[in-house]
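1st attempt posting a full record on here, be nice pls
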Amino acid sequence: MGMQAVPSMSGSDQGKGSDVLDPQDRARFEQLVLPHLDAAFNLARWLLRSRADSEDVAQEAMLRAFRFFRGFHGGDARAWLLQIVRNTCYTWLEKNRPVELMTEFDEELHPQPSASPEALAIEGNNRERLTRALETLPPRFREVLVLRELEGCSYKEIASITAIPIGTVMSALARAASVFSAPLRIAPAQEASREL
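the predicted structure (as tokens):
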């Protein structure tokens, strides 16, 4: 995927040369946005469930972020970037896996696991348990859990990133977490690694 292919994707609504930042903006981008590259990759990885696809989509999202950085006027750079990553992932899913997006969360489709929390704890560590549990959820529930549990985002940040109301975020988290009988608390620092 060449960098020259990306600027034409959004049209020329930003004006001529919008894909080029001046040195000051470039330095700001590197300082504010680049530190969140791992978070961007993690979100793409969990939404798309394929390392190769998520690397492509995360790279495309970073290029979009770079091109639209002039429109970023302060605030939470991580939330701003993750919103771009999320939108890029959903665009990719609509084109490549539309069936996944039609799956709504349903307790009938996603029954409670029969194993007790103790049995699950013995079976594997938190990371493995979370991985298995997340794989059973549709993308819209997966993203909320990933943002909360792995990235340590606040409800407000999740609402901003996903463009859904805080109340819906909270109920989605409660419903998704209730699918797993074991609590899914993980220290966000442990999750900085890209390894899954």
